[in-house]
Amino acid sequence: MSLRHTPMAWGCIVVLAWLGCLVGCSGKHEPVPHPPLLPGHEKPAPTGTPSIIQIGTASWYGPGFHGHETASGERFNQHALTAAHRTLPLGTEAKVTNLATGQSVIVKINDRGPYVKGRHLDLSRAAAKQIGLTKTGVAKVKIEAKTPRRAPRNVPHRGAASRERHDSAPHRQKEA
User: Fold this and answer.
1) How many domains does the chain have?
2) What is the residue-wise DSSP string for 77-113?
């Protein structure tokens, strides 16, 4: 190979390596099924908005995502009472009760997730702490949601916290 072909060869190698890394980072992920609704528990609330009740598994996320953009466009604040849910409209208020402790907290859905099979809700650190979830990391919960009268602008699944949690969700931070 002559000296004038060497830069072109290196350029091709660099481009191929870059494409290989890009393809490697975009692996397919198994779709997560939606949480089941309890039969007969979908009824109109006094304000006319539907009330939804679900029983499922909750986990929490915090320090690693603090300050990142959520699916609603807000910045994730681990000290706020918020949560991520795959299907509830963004802006929905939900009462979350830890079935093991009986403790409850009211959160606002502002992100999408969790992306771990079998999980239905990801709580902020502050919300998880209020219901005794930070020590166990995962718990069975009851979710009672009232959808907002007027849904906020529906932003596609773009939040940095959601994307990054997708890769790191199998394990949760434990409180010291």
Assistant:
1) 1
2) -TTSSEEE-SSSPTT-EEEEEETTT--EEEEEEEE--
CA–CA gap between residue 3 and residue 139 (Å, rounded)? 64
CB 87 within 8 A of CB 33: no
| 93 falls within a domain | yes
Q: How far apart are the first and last CA of the chain?
A: 60
- Domain with 114, as residue range(s), is 52-151
Amino acid, res. 105: V
Q: Is residue 14 part of a domain?
A: no
Residue 143 φ/ψ, nearest 5 degrees: -110, 120
Helix (H) / strand (E) element for 57: namely strand 50-61
Output the six-digit token pair for 149: 């009268």
Which pLDDT band, with edges at 50, 70 and 90, does 163 fall under? very low
Query: Do the domain assignments include residue 35?
Result: no
Nearby residues of 101 by Cβ (< 8 Å), 6 or more positions away: 131, 132, 139
Residue with tokens 């929905």: 92
Strand intervals (E) in the chain: 43-44, 50-61, 82-84, 93-98, 104-111, 121-124, 138-146
Amino acid (one-letter) located at 102: G
Considering the domain boundaries, does residue 76 fall inside one?
yes
Pairing of strands 93-98, 138-146: antiparallel
Query: Over the stretch 33-71, which tens digit does the pLDDT of each residue have?
Result: 555 554 444 433 334 455 889 999 999 987 888 888 999
